Write the structure tokens for this entry.
Amino acid sequence: MKKIITLFTVLLSTMVFSQEITTKKGLFFAEGKQLSNKEVKTLLASNTKALALFKASKTKASVGGFLLGFGGGLVLADLVSGAIADIKYPTALTYVGLASLAASIPVLSGRTKKRNDALALYNEGLKKSATKDSNFELNIIVNQSGYGLQFQF
């Protein structure tokens, strides 16, 4: 009986924190199951600060990706037109493309930090609410009859 009660206590304590969102190689996981971006947004809806940070990281990724693609496309288009046509190669398109590429670097650099901050804020909020809402209490009782465990729910 003691083994069953101890096992129950350990399982219950791990179940309290099982909803945490983790990342591995840019993918989101909760309870060992992969989550889509939409599911992550749904889970983060309970914490507005975490949701705002997550949306900001997605916005930074979109804007930075656009700037990177736009700049690379302009440089490549100018290079091809310079090779095919008989014009002077570095035109204004190359310089605008390089400026766009340079601007994408700081935009893309902060997206991972914002995403990790959002997930950390959400997971921290889960731990606080789980300990605050939990009425579970485990006490070790000692009296003249012996030792015992007291569970309160």
About this structure: The longest helix spans residues 48-84. The mean pLDDT is 82.
